[in-house]
Amino acid sequence: MSKYLTNLLSKLNNPDAAIVADGIDGADVTGFIDTGSYVLNALLSGSIYGGLPANKISCLAGDPATGKTFYAIGIATQFLKDHKDGVVIYFDTEQAITSDMFAQRGIDSKRIAVVPVATIEEFKNQALKIVNDVLETPEEDRKPIFMVLDSLGMLSTNKEMSDSAEGKDVRDMTKAQLTKATFRVLTLKLGKAKIPLLLTNHTYQVIGCMASNVNIIMGDSSIKNITNIEVGDNVKTLTGTSEVTELFVYDSNEIVEVLLDDGTSFITTPNHKFMTKDGEWKCISDIAEGDEIVSIEKVS
């Protein structure tokens, strides 16, 4: 049967296609990078002696100032200790990395490079140049490489930079799509090149919220400001009427103003979800200008 399958694969003209028994190049975990913490090793790999997958994209996400950079540098340090001919490419988006931070860990500064990047496009282009160079190098001549992006959330976009330069105080609604496109391209190439990439990213408690100027349609078709909604109130939804069971108030530094073609406008956090015409729920940051969202007809 394997001979038959091998013959079928030969027709595909795809050098990366493989029979599972022979291993899946780029997908199978080739090893682990010790994080310096038994607990974190176990969480990531199931073994206190494991750690970060050596050929995958991983992310350390958490609240600001919780030690993500501290751990990222520690993992980079361990990588260099385990690979005497290895190098680290550290993409810095916050200008927060200093020589002393590496020196304190005893890192060989000649084997680590800090690459400042400001936009998603800049990171994508520079990371791809490195990965493509590795893929073009004969495998026996390649050196172990570890990449860090610290942090994903701080990356801007070319459009956002251009808008800021022109004094336009608007949100770039293409950022989410650009980020997804970047990792669609990088994921397979990093796996083939056997280059691990560690991201850091901020997380916030905001789940999605509307600003205080938004009015809500109640179950009896009356209008009530969102700040006056109480537990037990009945509100209209896209599927009927529902009772409010809990209230939340969030602090958020990032808000988006949404303008509909009927003149309606409201302010929300970027991760607040809306239903599009095709029935899919999308964060407002993923909705492009011209998309149609479903709404309950205005009550006069």
What does this structure look like?
This protein has 2 domains: 53-202, 3-Layer(aba) Sandwich (Rossmann fold), CATH 3.40.50; 215-286, no CATH class. The longest helix has 19 residues, at 175-193. The protein has 7 helices and 15 strands. With 300 residues, the chain is α/β, with parallel strands linked by helices. It is globular. A hairpin with a 5-residue loop joins β8 (215-217) and β9 (223-225). Strands 3-7-6-4-5 form a 5-stranded parallel β-sheet, with helices on one face. The chain has helices at residues 2-10, 38-45, 68-82, 99-103, 120-136, 158-165, 175-193; strands at 32-33, 52-53, 57-62, 87-92, 112-116, 145-150, 197-202, 215-217, 223-225, 234-237, 240-243, 256-259, 265-268, 273-275, 281-283.
Structural class: alpha/beta
| Gap between N and C termini | 70 Å
CATH architecture of the largest domain: 3-Layer(aba) Sandwich
Strand residues, percent: 15-25%
Number of domains: 2
Major sheet: arrangement of strands: 3-7-6-4-5
In the predicted model, the low-confidence regions spanning at least 5 consecutive residues are none
Approximate helicity band: 25-40%
- The whole-angstrom Rg is 24 Å
N-to-C series of helices and strands: HEHEEHEHEHEHHEEEEEEEEE
Q: Which descriptor suits the 3D outline? A: globular
Could you describe the largest sheet, including whether it forms a barrel? 5 strands, parallel
